[in-house]
UniProtKB/TrEMBL annotation:
<feature type="signal peptide">
    <location>
        <begin position="1"/>
        <end position="23"/>
    </location>
</feature>
<protein>
    <recommendedName>
        <fullName>SnoaL-like domain-containing protein</fullName>
    </recommendedName>
</protein>
<keyword id="KW-0732">Signal</keyword>
<dbReference type="InterPro" id="IPR032710">
    <property type="entry name" value="NTF2-like_dom_sf"/>
</dbReference>
């Protein structure tokens, strides 16, 4: 992955999710790579049809989960994003910072499992490899306000080493 030196900075924060808890490793143990940390201008909500919301949502999904272009993805996020993750605070800057530090590492990969939209809500179920020793399942639920993603919930589960359930996590 190539980043322009004009818009890069050294990553100094990397979260690891372990069984639902968030741990922050010592700075000396953090991986070193460059990411664009400039928070994009937030989305300004405008009235749109449910069909337009669906198009915006799936455009966001493509940028966020497939191409990992967080600069583009966050142009669809409201500045006053309501975030229900207990380890984060509200607002686009906080969300962008966490996502940018977690998922831009070349060692982290995202695989979409399911994605659904029914105005004004959309959700994405995906697998993340590279954050933990075993894969981690994420489900993000997003609520739209007109043309913008305005509210976020997530559920995170690391795949256990030993399972008793015969159904796969993914």
């Amino acid at each position: 992955m190539h980043f322009s030196s004009k818009v890069t900075t050294t990553l100094i924060l990397f979260f690891t999710f372990i069984r639902g808890a968030v741990c922050v490793p010592a700075p000396a143990l953090l991986p070193r790579y460059s990411v664009n940390t400039t928070v994009p201008n937030p989305c300004m909500p405008q009235a749109v049809s449910p069909r337009n919301q669906e198009d915006i949502f799936f455009g966001f999904v493509n940028s966020f989960y497939i191409t990992k272009d967080y600069q583009e993805a966050y142009t669809h996020v409201a500045g006053d994003l309501i975030n229900h993750n207990p380890t984060s605070v509200d607002g686009i800057a906080s969300s962008f910072s966490v996502v940018n530090s977690l998922f831009t590492s070349p060692s982290v990969s995202i695989q979409l499992i399911h994605q659904v939209f029914g105005a004004p809500f959309g959700w994405v179920h995906y697998r993340v490899d590279g954050l933990n020793p075993l894969p981690t399942a994420f489900v993000d639920v997003w609520r739209m306000d007109g043309s913008c993603l305005a509210e976020h919930w997530d559920v995170i589960e690391e795949q256990p080493a030993n399972t008793t359930n015969p159904h796969p996590l993914f």
